[in-house]
């Protein structure tokens, strides 16, 4: 199982912490925050995903000394009317 409250960033991708946590041949069920942090896992904080008409949002992660924060980058989609205008000028050979 994975504990989605803790994780590591590896190549800018979030890797959630395992539960149980295996260390030196010992399995720790339901590790504490200090046990996770001693092994390099940080708390994961998720910013609320924005909602905006005409846009979609892509997640990205920011690592601080105390946490990994999931943030959102806005991707603006083209307006439908513009796409329809481009279809009007499209010629098929």
Structure description:
The chain is an alpha+beta fold. It contains two helices and seven strands; from the N terminus they run ββββαβββα. The chain has a five-stranded mixed β-sheet. The model has no long low-confidence stretch (mean pLDDT 87).
Q: Could you list the spans in which at least 5 consecutive residues all have pLDDT below 50?
A: none
Please state the structural category: alpha+beta
Rg, rounded, reads 21 Å
The proportion of residues forming helix, as a percent range, comes to: 10-25%
Give the mean pLDDT. 87
Order of helices and strands: EEEEHEEEH
Q: Give the biggest beta sheet.
A: 5 strands, mixed
Helical stretch count?
Answer: 2
Q: What's the N-to-C terminus distance?
A: 56 Å
Overall 3D form:
elongated
What is the strand arrangement across the widest sheet? 2-1-5-7-6
Give the strand tally.
7
Strand percentage: over 45%
Which key features would you list for this structure?
93 residues; alpha+beta; two-stranded antiparallel sheet; 7 strands; 16% helix; 47% strand
What does the secondary structure layout of this molecule look like, with pairings?
Elements: E1 2-10, E2 13-18, E3 21-23, E4 26-28, H1 33-38, E5 42-46, E6 55-63, E7 68-76, H2 80-88
Parallel strand pairs: 5-7
Antiparallel strand pairs: 1-2, 1-5, 3-4, 6-7
Summarize the structure.
This protein is of the alpha+beta class and 93 residues long.
